[in-house]
What does this fold into?
Amino acid sequence: MNEPNHMRRIAIIWFALSVILTPIVVAVIAPTLPPGDATSAADNQLSDDTLLLGIVTPIAVAMIVYFAYTMIVFRRRGEPTEEGPATRDNRAVHIPWLVGTTAIVLFLATFGTVELADAGAGGGEGPEPAFKMTGDVLPVQVIAQQWEFTYRYPTYGGVETAHLELPVDKNVEFHVTSLDVIHSFWAPRLGVKADANPGVDNVAFVKPWQEMSFDIRCSELCGLWHGYMFDTGQVVSESAFEEWIHEQQRTFAPATKFLPKYSTQYFPEPERRAG
Amino acid sequence: MTGTVSARPLWRRLIGFNLLWGIVLGIVGFYFGWWLGHQIHAESLSFFESTNQNDVALMLGYVFALVGFLVGLGFLNYPLSRMRGHRATQAEKEEGGVGRYFTLCTDHKVVGIQYLVGIGFFFFIGGMNAMLIRAELLRPSPQLFGAGNYLTLVGLHGTMMMGIMTSGILGPFANYFLPLMIGARRMAFPRVESLTFWLLMAAGAILMTTLLFGGFPTGWTGYAPLNDEANYGFDSYIFFFALVGLSMTLLGVNMIVTTITMRAPGLTWGRLPIFCWGAISTALLMVLAAPVLIAALLMVAFDRGVQTSFFLSSAGGSPYLFQNLFWFFGHPEVYLLALPGFGIVLELLPVFARKPLWGYRIAVAGIVGVALLSFFVWQHHLFVSGLNSSLRPFYMFSTEAISVPTGLIFLCGMGTLWRAKIRYRVPMLFCLAWFFNFFIGGASGVFLSDVPSDVATHGSFFVMAHFHYTIMGGLVFAFFAAIYYWVPKMFGIALNERLGKIHFWTMFISFNSTFAPLFALGLMGMPRRVVTYPSNLQPLNDWVSVSAFVLGASMLLFLANVVYSLVIVRKPAPANPWDSHSLEWQTPTPVPLENFDRQPVIDSDPYDYGVPPVPVPLPPPAEAPAPG
It folds into this structure.
């Protein structure tokens, strides 16, 4: 009986499908994925996703083709059972497989580190960020408490606002902190996510590239009304931002004097249940 | 069921050390502890008394309830009789009858079935919680439950599944089959084995009592300082997880010692069935990780009960400490959910592929490699927490490195299928589905391990989809594979094949239809554990909910199969319905009390399937070439 060369057939099917599917995934599907590329951080995230999809697609195709092929070609029906060949191993496969997977892992970790090194890719980096934005930055403090976010602009007299506005094309340095439990400041389109820990200054960087409005949600379970802890922010032109922040300063001037002095962290009375 | 035992009237048989008296003494113990807690007066407790939220009383109640429960079950009898100078004996409830399933029993086969039923019960409750969660999420704003009850449901579902299902495969199947597979007559510590089961059941019951005390709003992670301000229903969470941790630790010790010391002659490490490797690696994780959880939960209990401040930043503690401790346990925990699945799948593939397990050594390397690496990745749960930003590249690398040993498992599966003679029986379908699900789970895990990509998806439904693919798609599919495969051995009756296939396809399709859209929801900005979401996400959420209901219905199909096959039809299964070469199928069904009538001696691994290659006859000697 003339056994066909199964491995060659699998390789051909895999190659054909990968050549068709991988460019479609990378060039057509990936650019439409959230979080988009409206900011520097979102762009870091999307380029990692694109690269990962580009690597995962051919691997997934290989898996599906291999399993589908073996499951169809090597199937047997009913009794009595036939026995397969008693092959136990093929050492020639081990080394290429190990080298291949290890190489992919090393490459991914390296690429991820490179993107991460671009100011932390929008993730919260704690009080001493390993990866920073240099040059002129606008510090914005995000104060989380049960169950809302407020924002302080230390370079504008420490005014505390109920909404977040950011100027376009300017480096923003978020200082995320909490007054009670752990929250997480997540603005998906902005590409920023940073946990708000009580007594911790969690710094995250982003540079918005276009004017837009974006959603803000708390993404760490913070108690009863966690599901209601959301907000909408805006990225506006520099002049509109200046106008807005000065209006905020005027509006909140009576309140600002009673606020505690701007600090990277606040130690409120603990939410103790007794004592 | 003959002789004097069954001749006694029912009421007489109910008196003794059994579940009934365990429950009675447990309730008595609870009220004793509750009363005791209220006798303690202190400045800081006056607040509790005024609100009837006395944490100390509740905790003492749970402690004494547990003690009463165990005493009622008879766990004190043996130590007391030894102290009074009686001879050591193994004989607790080994005489047979239905009664031994409701008490301390030292027969590992009874404990296995106890685990199967007990875990099945709590798995069902956890699943019902999931149904309720999905019902709530049919609309973007709350409709069925308030925000608080919704959080309690989410927390109950997560905690129940992550707690009880840690023993989901080791409990029923390793307890039952590991001794059979290694040719032992029992587990190393039979009484401890029974204790692990009853601790788990006590834990499950304690977790359910949270509903009487207002639930808890923290999810299964129970982060500080939210856990400190939580209602006192959170104390049930603490006790649940601490007891689960204790049960896990003891189970792990038992598995490790049994595998090391009680293997039959000739069963070298190189011949140990791969399922036993999965079990012992899981056991290793349990022993090393679970005590950390117990310690962390004790600290939480002290923070709540007696005003220490391990985790309160305003009083000198650190919420990061809890996150670190929790995930130092928590990440090995998710692998100890996955590893038994690796073992089951690789154990079953050769039987249905009619080939030896391909690459036994690298399969072992894969399982042990995953187990060891899992201790070096926990901070990927804290990628945006603000902790150690300079260590992120390391944790990114170590997390991605886990795909190397996991890849070896896939390689072994692929090698085993190569040129096989595959028979599509129900267990095999579940095993093959495992590869599909776990690949998606693993690949999405690589996205999450990549820090920039994780910033977009951390704490979102993307993560939820990921771990349901690895845990439900990995553990639960392997769990069902194991049930269909081993029920003929455990009960002497096979589950119906046709119903099983209907169950499989319903479950497989609805599972993917439920969890694949969650990846999209997460990317589109839906965080976990929210009761509200933007209305543009409603169509996708409704799709997920309806799929989830079908998934739930597929579990009812399974239950119907169990009732139909095991209760109504009761068609005896053949002695070895799968033609397995593994040692457990060589014993008679039902397995006798001592398993083997004489000590088995092992001379090969259990995978000697297949036709050995016929030596190719040498070609006839060619004519000597003509000179010239």
